[in-house]
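Could you help me review a protein record that somebody else here produced? This is what I was given.
***
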Amino acid sequence: MIIVGSRRESYDSGTVPDKSKPVVYPIQLNMGYFRRSNAREITDIAMFRILDRYIFREIAQSWLAVTIVLLAILLTNQFARVLGDVAKDKLPKDAIFQIIGLTALQYLTILVPIGLFLSIMLALGRLYRDSEMPAMMACGVGAADIYRPLSWLLIPLTLMVGFLTMEVAPMALTEIERIGVEARRQADLSSIEPGRFTTAREGGVVYAEEVVGPGSVENVFLQQQTDDGIEVVIAERGEQVESDDPNTRFFVLYNGRRYEGIPGTSEFRVMEFAEHGIPYRLPNVENPELEPRAMKTSDLILATAAEEVAELHWRIGIPLATLVLAILAVPLSRSQPRQGRYGRLAIGLLVFIIYFNLLSAGKAWLEQGRVPAAVGLWWVHGLMLSFAFAMLAIQNGLHRRIFSSRARA
């Protein structure tokens, strides 16, 4: 309550008015400016939330479509290859879909980064083509406002890629190798294609004119390398025989000849036999020799060999590449209105190819010892990240502001 004035009683002539009494009027302060300011802020927040959801939805839908298409293409090719191996008895028939699923997990370690990179370029390219992005920029949307909804998808995908690369992909590769080893242990001579030369696991060459049954062939030719030269065996019939050792089998040949000697010389020894057994070792299922790609990440951390150190840096580099590619895709996708959705896609693919070729070259240099382990692949990520920040600075006019401030100084 505020006192705004006083009231005096009227008086007739000769009379003295009574003491004046203050009159109190209730008034309300003008809060219109503050209400308009709060309303403007609330409106801006609501607008940015709508734009964030819109940008996120566009990128997420594009990523899902691109990843599914690329995965389907690769799995189709892999499916045909697996069917070929099953037809040659190199893999068991009941393991087809298991191998396809394990292969898909390995493919995702590369498809998720490239799918996210292409989806950002496609989604933002459409917004630039339809002049939606310039309209958003006129409302105050900048690069940071694009990265905010992008982070909703980028952070979970980066964590997923890291988990796939560090844990799932090596486990999948080990399981595929185990299935292949088990299939080779159970394979018999029926895997030999009649009328064709087949390379044996131990480096020899086998030829059979006809396969007459499981583990039995006719008109056999066998050639293998020995320490003293080569050994060639020709027989009328051959069969596979089990031995007391579960890791050893015999290839028993009947009614044939055996030639031993050095090619290009006359030093050959010829023997005729009625029965001749050739032992061969089966691959070990319990303790197979794992490549660095199939080793556990915990084992790679403790390893000191150059190939294993290079594999560790590669696994760390894939999730980092996912982050760098997402940062790089935003400035690369910027184009003029009506330029076309795919106008910048070729440049983006070129940048992606250069990036991953540098990673592959860096890994090879690590394996060869040309690059120190402390440097690893960090220089590749730093180079591409610097390129992304440089593009963002140029597109936002940072270089012009720096030069203008220097000129005024």
